[in-house]
Amino acid sequence: MKRTKIKDLIATAPEEQTVVVMGWVRTFRNNQFISINDGSTIQNIQAVVELDQLEEGLLKRVTTGACISVTGKLIASPAKGQQVEIKVEQLEILGDSDPEKFPLQPKKHSLEFLREIAHLRPRTNTFGAVMRVRHAMAFAVHQFFNEKGFVYVHTPIITGSDAEGAGAMFRVTTLDAENPPRDEEGKVDHSQDFFEKETNLTVSGQLEGETYALALGDIYTFGPTFRAENSNTTRHLAEFWMIEPEMAFYDNNDNMDLAQEMLQYLMKYALEHCKEDLAFLDKRASDEEMTKPQAQRSELGLLDRIKFIIENDFQRLSYTEAIDILKNSNPNKKKKFKYIIEEWGTDLQSEHERFLVEKHFKKPVILYNYPKEIKAFYMRQNEDGKTVGAMDVLFPGIGEIIGGSQREERYDKLLTRIKEMGLPEDELKWYIELRKFGSAPHSGFGLGFERLILFVTGMTNIRDVIPFPRFPGHAEY
Ligand code: 4AD
Ligand code: MG
Q: How far is the CA of 446 from the centre of ligand 1 (A)?
């Protein structure tokens, strides 16, 4: 007989039909009640064995963490909180789990502890829920773009260019690390490397994405990106997933419209399709809030925060207006900010972004028209000569969730900026050339997938929303 997933069983009318369930034992009480989870849902199913039904040796092997297969009749459950249960007829151990050694006992474990056993943490309610929501969000991203006629483009993982000009890249090489070939000057000779040049893992698919937007119209990428920045924060990973739409004929306002529409679509999708998991995560988040001092607790619960995003327009605000607000803000005047805002032109830190979102406007904010000095070379230069058509979407509890811009489509302006910034013209030849042959106004943005998942799940550390997090000093598994 084929096994049925627990998700389907609990939605089935119990008519004493014979069913097979396979999954992992969460608890076994009184030598009678086995609680089984198979990952298809947050809910467990209860399998009931009669006293003396199973031989002693087999019973002893029904331990927390063991994998079992149960065959029995699906009956209405007399117990509270569940519709159905299984009256066991046959029980087979598929995989033993030594209760003395299994690290996941049926009690609350800290997230820090679970991070150390990332191969077992998906067996917990929290990680099961987070990863099912993560899946749903990935699916919804594709559905959103598909409905709008965007083409999914696979940009390269290994590249020869540094899209953000930030320089925090992981090298890709097959040269002998101990003894690389060297040229006359004693420098490592990359002409003898696999690609006969220096290459690295991509920090963004944007530049390659632009070439496809200027041919197919509306495109998006959704893939892993890598940054070797030494940021040990709850918002940064060295390997993260990014969604990067790029649209021909969009100006920066169209860009902001799309960003808001997409985020609201994703939030709606989560509310509709992840009800049980979100209910669990909502409770989890509010329990965690209660351990914080009153002043640091967020005013809304997880589900309310998600609804809030759906129901409210995002506040749009120029960088210049933001600086005025921040300069005159209480934390700035009272020197409560770590970085005091003194003049126009300074980069905003996450404390400033969060002040605007959480304290001042109390809603998501889209900041646009940033000083060109603090933004990437490819952003479209505004008439004022000082700012570029950038836009960042800032979310409560997260800070920057999206970064994007209208792109500089004018050949001369782009080339001048690349020279000004001393960027490698050679490497960017193809990108510049795109402006020579049928250039067009276009825009795009990047949504950090894990930051989205942080928001939707109410988790507080980005290392807990990706299966195997990579950050400085950590690349296990
Ligand atoms: O602002 P960023 O660096 O923008 C770009 O990479 C552009 N090329 C995007 C574009 O216009 N197509 O990154 C975009 C987003 C950020 O807003 C943030 O959500 C996420 O990617 N992000 C990170 N997420 C996790 N860990 C990191 N180290 C991240 N760096 C950026
Ligand atoms: Mg950014």
A: 6
CA of 220 to the centre of ligand 1 (A): 14
Residue 167 has pLDDT above 70, yes or no: no
Ligand 1 is surrounded, with C-beta below 6 A, by 163-164, 204, 206, 227, 236-237, 240, 242, 244, 400-405, 444-446, 448, 450-451
Among protein residues, the one whose CA lies closest to atom 2 of ligand 1:
403
d(CA 433, CA 437): 7
- DSSP per-residue letters across 357-406: IIIIISS-EEEEEEEGGGS-TTBPBPTTSSEEEEEEEEETTTEEEEEEEE
Q: Are strands 239-248 and 84-95 parallel, antiparallel or unpaired?
A: unpaired
Supply 447's token pair.
Answer: 């949504």
Give percent above pLDDT 70 in the chain: 99
DSSP annotation string for 424-455 = -TTTTHHHHHTTTSS---EEEEEEEHHHHHHH
Global pTM exceeds 0.85: yes
Give distance in angstroms: CA of 392 to centre of ligand 2.
7
Ligand in nearest proximity to the CA of 401: 1
Q: Return the best residue to mutate from 240, 388, 392, 466 for the ligand 1 pocket (most ligand atoms within 8 A of CB).
A: 240
Distance of CA 335 to the CA centre of its chain: 33
The DSSP secondary structure of 267-331, one letter per residue, reads HHHHHHH-HHHHHHHHHHHHHHHHTS-GGGS-SS-HHHHHHHHHHSPPEEEEHHHHHHHHHTSHH
Cα of 75 vs centre of ligand 2, distance in Å, is 54
Q: Which atom of ligand 1 is nearest to the CA of 236?
A: 26
Nearest CA to ligand 1 atom 20: 448
Q: Are 458 and 285 in contact (CB under 8 A)?
A: yes
Q: How far is CA 2 from the centre of its chain?
A: 35
Gap between the Cα atoms of 158 and 161, Å rounded: 9
pLDDT tens digit string along 265-295?
Answer: 999 999 999 999 999 999 999 999 999 888 8
Can you give the pLDDT at residue 302? 96
Neighbours of 276 (CB within 10 A): 13
Distance CA 436, CA 324 (A): 39
User: Tokens standing for 66?
Assistant: 């063991």
Q: Compute the CA torsion angle 114, 119, 124, 129 (nearest 10 deg).
A: 110
Say if residues 240 and 201 touch (Cβ distance below 8 Å). Answer: no
Calculate how far, in angstroms, residue 106's C-alpha sits from the geometric centre of ligand 1.
Answer: 38
- Residues 34-41 have a mean pLDDT of 98
Would you give the distance in Å from CA 349 to the centre of its chain? 21
Q: Which of 451, 454, 474 to mutate to test the pocket of ligand 1 (most atoms within 8 A of CB)?
A: 451
